[in-house]
Structures are given as structure tokens and as C-alpha cells.
Amino acid sequence: MAGLISATDFNNQFPQTRNNSVWQAFVTAIYEVGCLLGAIFQLTFGDKIGRRRAIILGAGIMLLGVVIQCTAFTGHSPTAQFIIGRTITGVGNGINTSTIPTYQAECSRATNRGLLICIEGGVIAFGTLFAYWIDFGSSYGPPGLTWRFPIAFQVVFGLIIIVSMIWLPESPRWLLTRDRQEEASTVLAALRGLDRDHEDVKREAAIILDSIHASGHSGGNTPFSALFTGGKTQHFRRMVLGISCQFFQQIGGCNAVIYYFPVLFESSIGTTHSLSLLLGGVNMIVYAAFATVSWFIIERVGRRKLFLAGSIGQGLSMLLVFACLIPGTPGAAKGAAVGLFTYIAFFGATWLPLPWLYPAEINPLKTRAKANAISTCSNWLWNFTVVMFTPPFVAASPYGCYLFFAVVNACFIPVIYFFYPETAGRSLEEIDLVFAKGFVEKMSYVKAAKELPYMSEHEIDEKAKEYGFVSDDEEAGQLKEARHGEKESDLATHGGGMMG
Question: How far apart are alpha carbons 10 and 16 in whole angstroms?
């Protein structure tokens, strides 16, 4: 929508959006409402219908929404039809963003699962890049094509998803939660390129089953009440940490830049529509390039340092935009353009992938699936909020909006510094022990993460006994049983990193 919402042909077809920032925001942001509904649907029914069928369902719903949008014609309430179609498309995307990363993680090898979650987050930037340039190319076409083609082109990707899933298997972990062990063994053997009777296949199936039973996830269900418990496991605190980083990602202004980059250039900096589209495309090239940075440094630098660096860089970038727009001159406005480019570079390298990885690591086995789903709902809810208020905010105060985002990003820094423990290089068992150490020894969890040494399996077992996990029915499964199969790189198997 970034290149369409202010286009003349689009505004002629949907006159409510012409020079009306509230309507432009609403037509754009209603998509996030659909995504939120899709994520809630998956939170409620996802474990019942399975990964494969959910993905096919989500893509099918997206295709339906696209058709409804593209067939909106003058004289038949086109704006209402477009809004309905965009909401339906969002529902399909909400289902898919809550399912596809989980499916991918559950089918990946232990050695590359963590990296793949980061890559999934980064690939969002490449999709955005593609969308921007489709918008730019379509802007030179006839009136009907300029907005219908970019929206209709989503059908291509939806069909790829549906057709691909016809030939792909169900998640072996979901099959095991349903006691479909024969099918699960067949899938595991196929994914590993081994015979079904191979010892490695049997061992992996046994490890997954042990983890499922030990976590109380038999039958695929964990009660919502488990999310609000404290004690040594700190389920509630860990869920809030996951939710907060998704909230920070959105309220920091990323989609104010991604969705409205051409609009911001036109309204705040004063460029032509064509030039704003071109600069938007260039900005997305920068975005995609920097999105790959985290792939190479995520384990070496750590989560906390990247979170902090991203917050500082984004805040300073927004401050630069604010300062350069105050004079109101074309020369100064060029500095604002630089600020928008540096913002998207910092975001792509840090805050784009991290909120999808951190909740998967920070939440324990028992609550990870539901806690991650709630984090995803938080992402879409605040995505909608930011997309909705940005155009009216910019219209009311061309530079005040950027000062707001600069201050918000600055507020992230103390929260991250004092409350976000480092998880890099830790197995799930060790992360559980970090929170146990903080609770038992009455220290901050950040300090507990710094003081707890990196341990072998034997040392983890001894420390678990020291904190009384092994004798505790609720906690024993997380630390005693999970150590047989769930390493740091396995963490996404059970909760699934969640992408939107």
C-alpha cells in the first residue's frame, strides 16, 4: 500500500482516501486488524487443524481477499468492498505468519534452526523491496493497472504456497502430539534422508515424545493459566519479555517508515509522487541489504547489544529527521531523507529479526507455543495502531511525529538494559536456570545471566538439582527430560518462532 495510498488513480477509485490522512490510514491499517484476527484464530485452533492444513487455509483466504479487492468498481461501494477484501487478506496472512515459521522450525535440523528463524525475519525485507518496485513499475501503466496489478500479484505467491504444501508433509512434532507415531516416523526419516527403522529416527522421535510428555503438552494443549505463573520458572515474566519486544518493534516507528515512506517524502520533504516512489524503492534496497547483517553477528554479538544498538541508532535517526524538518527548507529536508535511510538500516540489522527470535528463546517449553502466539498478536495490534495514527500525526505536525518516535526509542534503552537477560549461546535448560537463579537468589535476571557460567549437560543437571527442579513435578520435565533433546538450537522445535 505504500506506493498506492496517495496515487491519483487509487484516490480516484476510492475518493474517500483523496487528501484525507485518516481514511488513508484506515484503509491501510485495516489489514493489520485482519492479521490480528488470523493470529487469534491460530492461537485458538492451530493445534487442532495442524500446520499443513493451516498454511493451505491461510493462503486460500488470502487469495479470496485479493479477488475481492481487485474487483472493486465504481458504483458498487468500492471502498467498502476494498476494506472487506483487505481485512480478509489480513486474516489469511495472520494465520500464515503464526504457522509457517513454526512449521519450518519443527522440520529443520537442530544445527541450523536458530539461524533460520533470523533468516525468516530478514526475508521480510526482501518481500517489502519486491513490493515497492512492483508499485513503482505499475505507476507507469494505465489507470486500472496502477493499483490492481500490485494487489493482484499476491495471487502468485499464494498459489505457490498452496501448491507447495500439497507435496510437503505435516510437521512431525504435531503428528506426535496427536499420537500419530507411524506417520511422524515416516516424515522424520524423509527429512533426514534415512530409513524409518534407523536408530537416529527412532531416537529423535523418542526425544520429541519425551519433551511433549515432560512439558505437559500431551494432546497439544497447555492451559492459559500456566502463562501467569511465577516461581522458579517465571512463566509470566518471560511471556511479558516476549510481548514487550514485539511491542517495541512496532511502536518504534518501523511501519511508519515502511508503509508510508513515499507519503512521508511527499508530505514532509516535498518530493513528487514518482520521485518518492523511486526513493522508497532505494530505501528498501538499503533495508534488504542490512537485514542480512544479523545472520552473521547474532551469535557473536548477542541479543542485548543488538537490541541496544538498534534502539540508539533508530532514536538518533528519528532525531535527525525531526531536526532537519524544523527549518522547512528543501536543503534541510535532504537531511531528513538521510535520517529515514539510516533508520531503516538500523532497523533491518537489529529490530527486524530479533523480536521473532527472542520470544522463542526466552519462553520455556511448556508455555512457548501460546506465549509466542500472544507475542504475535501484540505485534499485529501495535502494527495497526502505528499504521493508523501516523498519517494524521504527520498531517497535524510534520516534524513532531519524528520527535515522538525518537523519544520512544530512547525509552527502550533502560528497559532492555535492566530487564532483558542475554540468551546467546545458552541452551534452553540454562535459560531456565537463569530465571531460577534470579528468583532463588533474589537478584536481577540480567545479573543472573551474567553470573551463571556456560555449563555442560552434567553441570546443568547438578544445578537443576540444587534449585530443586528435579523433585518438582511441574518443573522436572523442563530440565530433566528436555536435556536429552532440546538444546539451544532445538528451542524453536517446540514453540516455533512466530513471524508477521
Answer: 10
CA distance 131 to 154: 9
For 381, residues 6+ apart whose C-beta sits below 8 A from its C-beta are 32, 36
Domain, as residue range, for 109: 8-168+230-419
34 and 119 assigned to the same domain: yes
Tell me what pLDDT residue 191 has: 86
CA distance between the termini of the chain: 16
* DSSP output for 426-478: --HHHHHHHHHHHHHTT--HHHHHHHSPP--HHHHHHHHHHTT-TT-HHHHII
How far is the C-alpha of 313 from the C-alpha of 322, rounded, in Å?
Answer: 14
Q: Quick check: 367 and 290 in contact, CB under 8 A?
A: no
Kindly state the DSSP code that residue 170 receives in the 8-state scheme. Answer: P
Give the mean model confidence (pLDDT) for residues 201-209.
Answer: 78
| CATH number, domain containing residue 237 | 1.20.1250.20
Whole-structure pTM value:
0.76
Rounded to whole angstroms, how far apart are CA atoms 127 and 300? 27
- List the one residue out of 492, 498, 494, 495 whose CA is nearest residue 115: 492
In this prediction, residue 43 carries a pLDDT of 80
User: Residues 212, 301: one domain?
Assistant: no
Residues 15 and 113 in one domain: yes
Name the burial class of residue 60, with classes exposed (0-12), middle (13-18) and buried (19+) by CB atoms within 10 angstroms of its CB.
middle
CA–CA dist 467, 239 (Å, integer): 22
- At 221-231, the pLDDT tens digits run 667 788 898 88
Q: Is residue 483 part of a domain?
A: no
**Domain count across the chain:** 2
pLDDT digits (tens, 9 = 90+) for 390-415: 878 877 887 888 899 999 999 999 99
Do 255 and 187 lie in a common domain?
A: no
- pLDDT of residue 485 exceeding 70, the answer is no
At 198, which amino acid appears?
H
Quick one: cell of 113?
534452526
